[in-house]
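Quick illustration, no need to memorize.
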Amino acid sequence: MSLIGKYADLKVAKLVDFGVYLLGEDETEILLPIRYVPENTQLDDTIRVFIYRDSEDRVIATTEKPYAIVGEFAWLRVKAVTDVGAFLDWGLMKDLLCPFREQKMKMEEGRSYLVYVYVDEKTGRIAATAKLEQIISDLNAEFTEGQEVSIMIGHQSDLGYSAIIDNKGMGILYNNEIFGAIREGDVYKAWVKKVREDGKIDLSLQQQGYHLEVPRVGEELFEILKKENGFLPLNDKSSPEEIYDNLQMSKKNFKKVIGLLYKQRIITIEKDGIHLVKPEKE
């Protein structure tokens, strides 16, 4: 069934004491248990549900939302390890299995891992894999330098963090591109800094290029200063961490921005921080 692991808007075909049956593909009926049935549901109503298999391997519907559906990557915590693999918390009553053969390293209870959700072709069951390189290769996504993307932070290494790009590629966010605290599993806006000849992708949390970045960020900084009564306790002597914690920008871009605003006589740069220039009275 092609609906397995996906959301679908299905029509109510039958009302029963223990729930409702929804009309699926090829006129098949899929049970939505009573605990998930919206109040006052009637025949022919349409309900948005997620389709999966229950513990008895029956196709079933739920209005609960998993942390990831088939075809998506997610950062999931291991609830239990058994003789068949690791069971991951993915937001539904039935946990998601990552078989031992799909684990890059032996998973441990209580720890979280970056995985991809898929349907096992042999069993028709939804499962997870931590072997992401082949998945990424099969997706064969293309990115261009300077492209704005959404990234999910993966595992940390000595170089930085691996990251899933737009749910279809993988890159690396180097330590020197990180100016504040980030966490594995979090999602950020980022930019493709470089696409290497071997296909590997370097990422940045800052848009690249003076002409692209500075005017936009200058406007944002100007608005922040107005909200803060014309003062921010930051200047070109502030640490990269202080700047990122307050403004989510690198010190390099911060210095460019305040330099531009200073030349335009919009701000003054003092020892205690930056000040908006008060307009002269006529």
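The mean pLDDT is 88.
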